[in-house]
Amino acid sequence: MAEEKAAFAAVQVVLDAFGRLDVLVNNAGYGDIAPFEQLSSQRFKAVVDTNFYGIVNVTRAAQPVMRKQKSGCILQISSVGGRLALPGSTPNHAAKWAVGGFTQSPAQEVTPFWRQGMHTRT
Question: Is the pLDDT of residue 45 over 70?
């Protein structure tokens, strides 16, 4: 959900269908394998938009719903590419490392709600 409006629309579809949102699994994954010098800025951005901003946008749409419900679980899926870099996957590694860093802050922000059933894990 690289488009923020699409993320909010997807959450609304879930709410319309089920009345609540209990679990969000962010598992965005898109790769473009090539040496960095051969990747255009558009190709690089496409990977980062999907693998990082997709997670940011869906989390932004879901977290207020879960906070209002006082329950929910957000699971962010990264990859080993968020810990180890290999040649040919520069935008993927950049995005997956960003997922780890991004996830830590909202997780701490919702920590007071854990006892009430709201969880964010990496």
Answer: yes
